[in-house]
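Have a think about this chain, C-alpha coordinates included, and walk me through the fold.
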Amino acid sequence: MKFAWALLLLAFYSACFAAGAPAPVAVIATATLPLPTFMRDGAAVVRLDAKGYPQPLRAGSNGMVCIADDPGDDQLDVRCYQQDFIVVVYRSFQLRRAAGDPDAHIGGTIEAEIKAGKIHLPPQPTAGYRCSGPIADFDTTANSYRPPVECWQSVHFPYRTAAELGLPDESQVSEAQKRTLPYVMSSGKYWAHVMIEHPDERK
Protein backbone atom coordinates (compact mmCIF):
# COMPACT_ATOMS: atom_id res chain seq x y z
CA MET A 1 0.00 0.00 0.00
CA LYS A 2 2.79 2.45 0.91
CA PHE A 3 4.52 1.66 -2.37
CA ALA A 4 1.29 2.40 -4.27
CA TRP A 5 0.92 5.77 -2.52
CA ALA A 6 4.53 6.60 -3.32
CA LEU A 7 3.90 5.89 -7.00
CA LEU A 8 0.81 8.11 -6.96
CA LEU A 9 2.72 10.98 -5.36
CA LEU A 10 5.57 10.56 -7.82
CA ALA A 11 3.13 10.65 -10.73
CA PHE A 12 1.46 13.78 -9.33
CA TYR A 13 4.69 15.75 -8.92
CA SER A 14 5.99 14.55 -12.27
CA ALA A 15 2.82 15.84 -13.92
CA CYS A 16 3.19 19.18 -12.17
CA PHE A 17 6.75 19.71 -13.28
CA ALA A 18 6.04 18.43 -16.79
CA ALA A 19 3.30 21.05 -17.10
CA GLY A 20 5.65 23.75 -15.91
CA ALA A 21 3.70 24.33 -12.69
CA PRO A 22 5.63 26.14 -9.93
CA ALA A 23 6.80 24.00 -7.03
CA PRO A 24 4.39 24.17 -4.06
CA VAL A 25 7.00 25.95 -1.91
CA ALA A 26 7.31 28.71 -4.51
CA VAL A 27 3.53 29.01 -4.83
CA ILE A 28 3.16 29.48 -1.09
CA ALA A 29 6.06 31.92 -0.86
CA THR A 30 4.55 34.05 -3.62
CA ALA A 31 1.05 33.90 -2.12
CA THR A 32 2.29 35.20 1.24
CA LEU A 33 4.50 37.93 -0.26
CA PRO A 34 2.06 40.77 0.63
CA LEU A 35 2.34 40.00 4.36
CA PRO A 36 5.01 41.28 6.74
CA THR A 37 7.72 38.63 6.91
CA PHE A 38 6.90 37.63 10.50
CA MET A 39 3.28 36.82 9.49
CA ARG A 40 4.00 34.67 6.44
CA ASP A 41 4.71 31.31 8.08
CA GLY A 42 1.42 31.35 10.00
CA ALA A 43 -0.86 32.25 7.09
CA ALA A 44 -3.13 29.75 5.39
CA VAL A 45 -2.83 29.54 1.60
CA VAL A 46 -5.52 28.62 -0.92
CA ARG A 47 -5.80 28.51 -4.68
CA LEU A 48 -9.08 29.43 -6.33
CA ASP A 49 -10.54 26.92 -8.78
CA ALA A 50 -12.09 27.87 -12.11
CA LYS A 51 -15.33 28.87 -10.37
CA GLY A 52 -13.64 30.89 -7.66
CA TYR A 53 -13.92 28.39 -4.83
CA PRO A 54 -10.91 28.01 -2.50
CA GLN A 55 -8.81 24.86 -2.60
CA PRO A 56 -6.52 24.58 0.47
CA LEU A 57 -2.77 24.43 -0.15
CA ARG A 58 -1.63 24.98 3.43
CA ALA A 59 -3.32 25.34 6.81
CA GLY A 60 -2.68 28.45 8.88
CA SER A 61 -2.41 29.48 12.51
CA ASN A 62 -2.59 33.28 12.64
CA GLY A 63 -6.02 34.03 11.15
CA MET A 64 -4.75 35.26 7.78
CA VAL A 65 -5.58 33.57 4.47
CA CYS A 66 -3.64 34.23 1.27
CA ILE A 67 -4.88 33.54 -2.26
CA ALA A 68 -2.23 32.10 -4.58
CA ASP A 69 -1.48 33.75 -7.90
CA ASP A 70 -3.35 32.49 -10.95
CA PRO A 71 -0.63 30.99 -13.19
CA GLY A 72 -2.74 31.34 -16.32
CA ASP A 73 -2.10 35.04 -17.07
CA ASP A 74 0.66 37.64 -17.31
CA GLN A 75 -0.20 39.41 -14.05
CA LEU A 76 0.97 38.85 -10.51
CA ASP A 77 -2.00 39.22 -8.16
CA VAL A 78 -1.66 37.88 -4.63
CA ARG A 79 -3.72 38.99 -1.68
CA CYS A 80 -4.24 38.09 1.96
CA TYR A 81 -7.22 38.81 4.21
CA GLN A 82 -8.32 38.04 7.72
CA GLN A 83 -10.17 34.72 7.76
CA ASP A 84 -13.54 36.16 8.82
CA PHE A 85 -13.57 38.69 5.98
CA ILE A 86 -12.16 36.66 3.12
CA VAL A 87 -15.55 35.02 2.45
CA VAL A 88 -16.57 38.31 0.81
CA VAL A 89 -13.49 38.16 -1.41
CA TYR A 90 -14.23 34.57 -2.41
CA ARG A 91 -17.80 35.51 -3.30
CA SER A 92 -16.58 38.39 -5.46
CA PHE A 93 -14.38 36.00 -7.45
CA GLN A 94 -17.20 33.48 -7.77
CA LEU A 95 -19.68 36.00 -9.14
CA ARG A 96 -17.23 37.55 -11.57
CA ARG A 97 -16.09 34.18 -12.88
CA ALA A 98 -19.68 33.06 -13.29
CA ALA A 99 -20.30 36.23 -15.31
CA GLY A 100 -17.16 35.64 -17.36
CA ASP A 101 -16.06 39.21 -16.66
CA PRO A 102 -13.32 40.08 -14.12
CA ASP A 103 -14.69 43.63 -13.97
CA ALA A 104 -18.37 42.73 -13.57
CA HIS A 105 -20.32 44.88 -11.13
CA ILE A 106 -21.27 42.44 -8.40
CA GLY A 107 -21.77 44.82 -5.47
CA GLY A 108 -25.55 44.70 -5.64
CA THR A 109 -25.61 40.90 -5.48
CA ILE A 110 -23.21 40.76 -2.55
CA GLU A 111 -25.15 43.49 -0.75
CA ALA A 112 -28.36 41.46 -1.15
CA GLU A 113 -26.66 38.30 0.11
CA ILE A 114 -25.35 40.14 3.18
CA LYS A 115 -28.83 41.44 3.97
CA ALA A 116 -30.27 37.95 3.46
CA GLY A 117 -27.76 36.50 5.94
CA LYS A 118 -25.97 34.40 3.33
CA ILE A 119 -22.73 36.29 3.91
CA HIS A 120 -21.66 37.27 7.41
CA LEU A 121 -19.31 40.19 7.90
CA PRO A 122 -17.05 40.35 10.95
CA PRO A 123 -18.02 43.00 13.54
CA GLN A 124 -14.41 44.10 14.02
CA PRO A 125 -12.08 45.86 11.54
CA THR A 126 -9.93 43.46 9.53
CA ALA A 127 -6.75 43.84 7.50
CA GLY A 128 -5.98 43.12 3.88
CA TYR A 129 -2.65 42.93 2.03
CA ARG A 130 -2.11 42.81 -1.72
CA CYS A 131 0.64 42.85 -4.37
CA SER A 132 -0.16 43.32 -8.05
CA GLY A 133 1.60 44.06 -11.33
CA PRO A 134 3.20 42.48 -14.41
CA ILE A 135 4.48 38.97 -13.74
CA ALA A 136 7.58 39.87 -15.79
CA ASP A 137 8.64 42.18 -12.96
CA PHE A 138 8.43 39.47 -10.31
CA ASP A 139 11.39 37.18 -9.59
CA THR A 140 10.05 33.80 -8.48
CA THR A 141 13.48 32.51 -7.44
CA ALA A 142 14.20 35.46 -5.12
CA ASN A 143 10.51 36.04 -4.29
CA SER A 144 11.03 39.72 -4.95
CA TYR A 145 9.60 42.35 -7.27
CA ARG A 146 10.40 45.66 -8.90
CA PRO A 147 8.16 48.51 -10.09
CA PRO A 148 5.61 48.66 -11.58
CA VAL A 149 4.61 45.79 -9.25
CA GLU A 150 3.22 47.38 -6.10
CA CYS A 151 2.14 46.21 -2.65
CA TRP A 152 -0.31 47.97 -0.37
CA GLN A 153 -2.45 47.38 2.70
CA SER A 154 -6.08 48.00 3.64
CA VAL A 155 -8.17 47.98 6.80
CA HIS A 156 -11.80 47.04 6.24
CA PHE A 157 -14.62 48.75 8.15
CA PRO A 158 -17.86 47.53 6.50
CA TYR A 159 -20.48 50.28 6.15
CA ARG A 160 -18.43 52.92 7.94
CA THR A 161 -18.00 56.28 6.23
CA ALA A 162 -14.88 58.35 5.75
CA ALA A 163 -16.37 61.00 8.02
CA GLU A 164 -17.00 58.46 10.78
CA LEU A 165 -13.41 57.29 10.57
CA GLY A 166 -12.01 60.81 10.46
CA LEU A 167 -10.21 60.23 7.15
CA PRO A 168 -10.52 61.74 3.67
CA ASP A 169 -12.64 60.05 1.03
CA GLU A 170 -10.88 58.86 -2.11
CA SER A 171 -12.61 61.64 -4.06
CA GLN A 172 -10.92 64.26 -1.87
CA VAL A 173 -7.28 63.28 -2.41
CA SER A 174 -5.04 63.52 -5.45
CA GLU A 175 -3.09 60.60 -6.86
CA ALA A 176 0.08 62.01 -5.32
CA GLN A 177 -1.60 62.42 -1.92
CA LYS A 178 -2.75 58.81 -1.98
CA ARG A 179 0.92 57.85 -1.70
CA THR A 180 1.42 59.78 1.52
CA LEU A 181 -1.72 59.52 3.64
CA PRO A 182 -4.46 56.96 4.33
CA TYR A 183 -7.84 57.47 2.68
CA VAL A 184 -11.17 55.67 2.46
CA MET A 185 -12.53 53.77 -0.54
CA SER A 186 -16.16 52.63 -0.94
CA SER A 187 -17.23 54.84 1.96
CA GLY A 188 -20.45 53.65 3.61
CA LYS A 189 -20.55 50.35 1.68
CA TYR A 190 -19.79 46.77 2.63
CA TRP A 191 -16.37 47.14 0.95
CA ALA A 192 -15.48 50.33 2.88
CA HIS A 193 -11.80 50.28 3.71
CA VAL A 194 -8.83 52.45 4.54
CA MET A 195 -6.17 52.31 1.84
CA ILE A 196 -2.49 52.51 2.77
CA GLU A 197 -0.33 53.05 -0.29
CA HIS A 198 3.37 53.86 -0.48
CA PRO A 199 5.62 56.28 -2.36
CA ASP A 200 6.35 55.35 -5.96
CA GLU A 201 9.69 53.51 -5.91
CA ARG A 202 10.44 54.64 -9.48
CA LYS A 203 10.89 58.26 -8.39
